[in-house]
From TrEMBL:
Name the UniProt record assigns to this protein: Lipoprotein-releasing system permease protein
Keyword Lipoprotein annotated: yes
Domain ABC3 transporter permease C-terminal: 281-405
Membrane as UniProt keyword: yes
Amino acid sequence: MRLILDIAVTHILGRGRQTLVAVIGVAVGVGFSIAMAALMQGGQDDFVEQLIDTMPHVQITDEQRSTRRQPAETEFDAAAISGIRPPDDRRGIINPTAAMAWLGGWVPGNLAQSLRTQGVVRYQGREAGAAFVGVEPEMERAISPIVEDFTAGSFAALSQGGNNLVVGDRMAEKLGAGLGDTVTAVSSSGLSRSFRITGLFHTGTTARDEGEAYLLLKNAQILSERPNAINDIRIKLHDPYAAREAARRIEAELGYKAVSWQEANESIMEAFVVRNVIMYAVVAAILLVAGFGIFNIVSTITHEKARDIAIMKSLGFSRSDMQRMFVIEGIAIGAAGSLLGWALGFALTYALASIRFELDAGGQEITELPIAWSALHYAIASGFALGSAAVAGYLPARKAARLNPVDIIRGAT
């Protein structure tokens, strides 16, 4: 085996320029594959992290996945019943105190209850549509990251009591209002109350900064004329990836729709899977092209060393020895290219991570490229490189092993 290795190294070094080109081709393929994988994986991880941080892991609303059977359907034998509705349809989670107590007994995380209602905020002849979110500040602090996103005032101002309101900075700008101004909140039922702006937040998401306003839960219940009602329970788990199981248990027990963050973003998660398949397909294609360079040099060596092959076989080297020798040559080029590609990939990834820029489009702000540093990217790129190198070396090796030494020595074609 040592002799075969020595001969393989001699063949490779004997064509130094071509070998260097092949190694550089593999290195460029591996390096750019690592950088691309780091960038795409970093973008995916950053997006998922933002989902986990900015939204509840499980959200319970006063809805059911399937329509409840109506009493009229039980009472009357009819094919279909339409046009029947209760005189006062005021949805909400029934017995919220018991529901919160049950959840608090086993859920490994934090809970927050709220009442969400639609309305309008008015100020000096201007108005803006708003989603009023009635919260209990102490519970909300453990659930919502919005408490850290204030540009003026603070979320803690709600705890002081009174008719206080915190709104997004874009909503305040649209209304022409500022910190300390008094605005009028009008609910969908037509009831209006005056509130003082005690905080402005900026999350970077236009929909929230333009359309959300937070107030005390009791004030939201008064504004919407729904005393003691809540229609939303949000949960932050210690382990975000346990959300699916928790949501299934909650929905089975309470009967209300419980949505995990994975379910709420199912289409996005599926798109990530497709994107990863595309990414690794591109990586394979890049390294396959590099494999052609290895195939070319090993084929050239096989052709030029035909008489050497004949002499070696006549001295007792077997077909498997010939195949092993040329496969080793291909793998050696692939391994050298992989090592150089690791250095290139690290340098490219570091360069991408050091880029700083600011983008303000559609409310989303980015100051740096999200990069994922993972040894798996290096292993996968090297695996593809060595695999393509082994195949590129095997094909001419197979041909060389089949050569008849007598025909070569006699000069037969």
